[in-house]
UniProtKB/TrEMBL annotation:
PROSITE patterns: HTH_TETR_2 (PS50977). InterPro entries: Homeodomain-like_sf, HTH-type_TetR-like_transc_reg, HTH_TetR, TetR. It comes from Pseudomonas indica. Coiled coil: none annotated. Pfam families: TetR, TetR_N. Residues 5-65 form the HTH tetR-type domain. The keyword Transmembrane helix does not apply. One of its GO terms (molecular function) is transcription cis-regulatory region binding. It comes from the Bacteria. The keyword Manganese does not apply. Residues 28-47 bind DNA. This is Transcriptional regulator, TetR family. Keywords: DNA-binding.
Length: 230
């Protein structure tokens, strides 16, 4: 039988589940303690406040992204690597989706977290540019350094704002699904469409098909039906 998780780990996991399900603003430390059937004092023994729990969760998210958003050592990139990066981004976004939903509020509420996020964003942009350059060097993408820079920034904007886009189109209390986030990853891939080398087109098109989610499933409406009514 696996050992029971320690109280600190249980607090972090329960907080993540509640933040993702209800939104960080709707969850208090008392809610977390009640969910775990522990006293608020027991929770405060491990975390002095909710901001400390959020900082712990961000550190986990940051570590997860840093672990995969890097060039492989000793070999050229392949189209399979493109699938790996996109699926890894999707997994991180889904697992820590509350961070993306409440990002501006979280950063405004915690100056230390805001500084950590700023450094994290700079690191992600630098690493993503290196990865795009790796795809150029491997003959998968045809891009200039200026195009790589622009694509990296546009991709970052989509990734960091996609959950909030979903909340504005479906309503702030709507349940999100992994498929809805998958369409956001597809949007990032779509930015590359005009830069794919001819010899890589077939393989990349297969990735497009794997990630595609109809927009109606994302927004909750049928665009074809709306066009017909118009």
């Amino acid at each position: 039988m696996a050992p029971r998780p320690k109280t600190r780990e249980r607090i972090v996991q329960a907080s993540l589940e509640l933040f993702n399900a209800q939104g960080e603003r709707s969850v208090t430390t008392n809610h977390i303690a009640a969910h775990l059937e522990i006293s608020p004092g027991n929770l405060y023994y491990h975390f002095r406040n909710k901001q400390a729990i959020i900082a712990e969760l961000f550190a986990q998210y940051e570590t997860q992204v840093d672990r995969f958003l890097r060039l492989p050592k000793g070999r050229a990139l392949t189209v399979d690597d493109k699938t790996f990066y996109l699926e890894a981004l999707l997994a991180a976004m889904w697992h820590y989706r509350f961070l993306h939903r409440d990002l501006e509020h979280l950063l405004e509420s915690d100056d230390e977290l805001a500084e950590r996020y700023r450094l994290f964003a700079q690191r992600c942009l630098t690493n993503a540019q290196a990865i795009y350059q790796g795809f150029v060097d491997a003959g998968i993408l045809l891009m200039t350094p200026a195009q790589i820079e622009a694509l990296t920034l546009n991709g970052w904007i989509i990734m960091t704002s996609w959950v909030r886009f979903l909340c504005t189109t479906r309503g702030p209390s709507a349940d999100l699904s992994e498929e809805m986030l998958r369409r956001g990853i597809y949007q990032v891939l779509a930015l590359e469409s005009g830069y794919i080398a001819p010899q890589a087109r077939a393989a990349v098109d297969a990735v497009f098909q794997r990630l595609y989610v109809p927009l109606g499933e994302v927004t909750g409406t049928s665009l074809q039906a709306e066009a017909a009514e118009a």
